[in-house]
Amino acid sequence: MNIRTILPVLLGLILAPALLQAEERPLPDGCTSQSLGSGSFRAYGNPKQITGHPFTTTGAKKISLQHIVGPRALLVNFWTTWCIPCKKEMPSMDRLQGRVSTQDLLIVPLVRDGKGLSEAVAFYKAYAIKNMPLAADRFGKIGHEHRIGALPQTLFVNREGWVVGMLVGGVNWEAPNVIKLVESCLDLKIPETKS
């Protein structure tokens, strides 16, 4: 064999993994970039796998988002206790989690305060947050990998672990257009509120 016959084979072996990784993954119908009043959703044309960096939960336990996705989809919210839009959206986000089984959807609010969970515990008590877990991205590794900037921001992660989009800004998580977006992007059916 000469170099002309070997080179295409070698290039194919080298480039094949990169080409497979860059392959477009179609988003579900309705999972489109859109304005949501005080927030804006950006659908990812080329979804990225969720990071393997761990976050911290109560008792200083460390868990990776890759280990909790799978049978369920995730909404991974980045927030701080002093952020005004965060304060406005957290109660509606908590009520949304109360409406849907954690087997189908888990909302993971990752606090970005430098003190970790200590400030979040007081916030949860003050705002009567009871359906979502306490969690922190204390050193910002998850936020850095997913290019999280101004807060709040929320990653939409499907059951296969692909981040299909990001919502920037605080929203009412019980608003019909937000519910429809979550259902579309994460292939869910969210139960109606109990009257």
SSE diagram, text form:
Elements: H1 3-21, E1 34-35, E2 40-49, E3 54-57, E4 62-64, H2 65-68, E5 73-79, H3 84-99, E6 105-111, H4 117-126, E7 135-136, H5 141-145, E8 153-157, E9 162-168, H6 176-186
Parallel strand pairs: 5-6, 6-7
Antiparallel strand pairs: 1-2, 2-9, 3-4, 3-7, 5-8, 8-9
Top keywords for this entry?
single chain; 195 residues; alpha+beta; 9-stranded mixed beta sheet; 6 helices
CA-based shape: globular
Question: What structural category arises from helix and sheet content?
Answer: alpha+beta
If strands are numbered along the chain, what order do they take across the biggest sheet? 1-2-9-8-5-6-7-3-4
Q: What share of the residues does DSSP label as strand, in percent?
A: 15-25%
How many strands, which pairing sense, and closed or not: the largest β-sheet? Answer: 9 strands, mixed
Count of separate DSSP helical elements: 6
Q: What distance lies between the first and last C-alpha atoms, to the nearest angstrom?
A: 75 Å
Cα gyration radius (Å): 19 Å
Describe this structure in words.
With 195 residues, the chain is of the alpha+beta class. The protein is 33% helix and 24% strand. It contains 6 helices and 9 strands, in the order αββββαβαβαβαββα. Strands 1-2-9-8-5-6-7-3-4 form a 9-stranded mixed beta sheet. Strand 6, helix 4 (117-126) and strand 7 (135-136) form a beta-alpha-beta unit. The longest helix has 19 residues, at 3-21. The relative contact order is 0.22.
